[in-house]
Design brief:
Elements: H1 6-12, H2 17-38, H3 42-48, H4 55-69, E1 75-79, E2 83-91, E3 94-100, H5 110-118, E4 123-130, E5 135-136, E6 141-145
Parallel strand pairs: 3-4, 4-6
Antiparallel strand pairs: 1-2, 2-3, 5-6
């Protein structure tokens, strides 16, 4: 059995194709604004295929935009010696953590691992938003495609 991608996941839940298309377009449209505001000229770099741009900051910007649209207060955690967590938020009476990964090494997340080891049982969810399909590892870390941010 293979993990479901975004569209397959929504189809499995009976979501109509036009709704899926609208959700994808909405996400793409919302993700553009912060990049335009914070990274001068990025549109031209992306369109020209310039690989020097920081894809991580673009991905984090898109996630921040989507979380803010849903009224989720955005907090960042940085402990210089051990970890930097992209987003920490209140979730069902506890805390959840999101790490955003734009590259192919999304299973390498020392900060997220350290947060779980240093605070066992303190986090409701530890989420990595990345290029993968929907999956989870043995340590309870949930991997979701970046575009699934809208469902958090």
């Amino acid at each position: 059995m293979f993990p479901l991608d975004y569209e397959e996941f929504l189809w499995a839940w009976g979501i109509a194709q036009d709704v899926i298309d609208a959700a994808q377009e909405s996400f793409r449209a919302c993700a553009r604004l912060p990049c335009v505001m914070t990274m001068d000229g990025i549109q031209n770099l992306v369109l020209s295929g310039d690989i020097r741009i920081n894809e991580g900051s673009v991905a984090e910007n898109a996630v921040a935009t989507e979380l803010a649209k849903h009224g989720i207060p955005l907090y960042y955690y940085d402990k210089k010696t051990r970890m930097e967590l992209d987003f920490v938020f209140k979730d069902d009476g506890g805390l959840s953590v999101i790490e955003v990964k734009s590259g192919n090494n999304y299973r390498h997340h020392a900060a997220l691992d350290n947060a779980g080891a240093d605070n066992p049982g303190k986090f409701n969810r530890r989420i990595v938003l990345c290029k993968s399909n929907i999956t989870a590892n043995d340590n309870g870390i949930i991997y979701l495609p970046l575009y699934m941010t809208m469902f958090l």
